[in-house]
Amino acid sequence: MKAIYEKHNYSAAIRAGDLLFVSGQVGSRNDGSPEPDFEVQVRRAFDHLAGTLAEAGAGFEDIVDVTSFHTDPDTQFETVLKVKDDILPSKPYPNWTAVGVNWLAGFDFEIKVVARIPK
């Protein structure tokens, strides 16, 4: 993912006080290409998100707000919820906004979050 940030001149995350604003994470393979299996692509996006959160000393339990982007929400959302339930299985759940889009640079799912950084 670092190559993507450098190529397009943006940060994986920015800290503001005790909040971490994480840029959109996609389910790329090691070479940066989109993972073709949708569920695996979603899991890889969450894996990339976990790595970005960990670098700031945070984890999934620290997420307070989620925005996800979907190229075909009607057919994809059940899979996304399955993965989300594996990763965020208990309350309190973060706020979540899901947005249908027609382009994600070859990807079918992207997730961005705001998290609290633990003290």
Automatic annotation (TrEMBL):
Pfam families referenced in this protein's UniProt entry, alphabetically? Ribonuc_L-PSP
Kindly give the Gene3D superfamilies that the UniProt entry links to this protein. Answer: RutC-like
Q: Which GO terms describe its cellular component?
A: cytosol
* GO MF: deaminase activity
Q: Which domain of life is it from?
A: Bacteria
What is this protein called in UniProt? Enamine deaminase RidA, house cleaning of reactive enamine intermediates, YjgF/YER057c/UK114 family
Organism lineage: Bacteria, Pseudomonadati, Pseudomonadota, Alphaproteobacteria, Rhodobacterales
